Amino acid sequence: MKLKTSAHPNLNFASNVTWRSLQGHTEGIIAFNSGRNVGDSGATNILHLVLSRFHSEEKIWDDSRLYASLDVKLPRNNIDYKLFLKHEERYKNGSEHNVILGGQIIPGKEASILFSILIPRHSLIAFDVFFNVTVTNFNSCSGRLKFVEKLPKTYLVSI
Fold it and tell me: Are 126 and 117 within 8 A, CB to CB?
């Protein structure tokens, strides 16, 4: 859907709305320009939302993926925000979850966090967690936690 007006110089605006959805993928884009020159793309405010999910209904043990993203660009206010979340679930030797969170508040300065959790199938209680935090122009930070129950009420913890 597109709207454009130029009837009054103080009420000039142009907008564009796009919404798409197909097989678990949904994407919406809103663009709005209310600058003095409606044709100037450098003054266009943009809101971009993406939601995506993949999961096999036929095979229960197949992978499933989820992706969500939000981008906000307001050039006149010097705002360029990006946030995203990715989740991936696998079943091979147990349940494995990979989660990535990311964001950008200042252009060129991004931060991301990765979590990876493995829950083995044939253990009493066990999980293995790995995380990594990365920020542009800083050293990354990572860690690991492993928790395994060898015998009932006998645990092995590694940090």
Answer: no
Cα gap 4→31, rounded to integer Å: 12
- In 10 A of CB 44, how many CB atoms? 20
**pLDDT tens track for 77-100:** 777 888 888 888 877 777 778 888
The rounded radius of gyration (Å) of the Cα atoms in the chain is 23
Q: Report whether pLDDT(45) > 80.
A: yes
157/159 Cα distance (integer angstroms): 7
Helices (H) and strands (E) in the chain, counts: 0, 11
Q: Exposure of 48 by Cβ count < 10 A (0-12 exposed, 13-18 middle, 19+ buried)?
A: middle
Whether residue 27 contacts residue 19, with contact meaning beta carbons closer than 8 Å, is answered with yes
**pLDDT for 157:** 85
Residue 33 CB burial class (10 angstroms; 0-12, 13-18, ≥19): buried
> CB within 8 A of 112, min separation 6: which ones?
100, 101, 102, 103, 133, 134
Asked whether 147 and 126 are in contact (CB, 8 A), the reply is yes
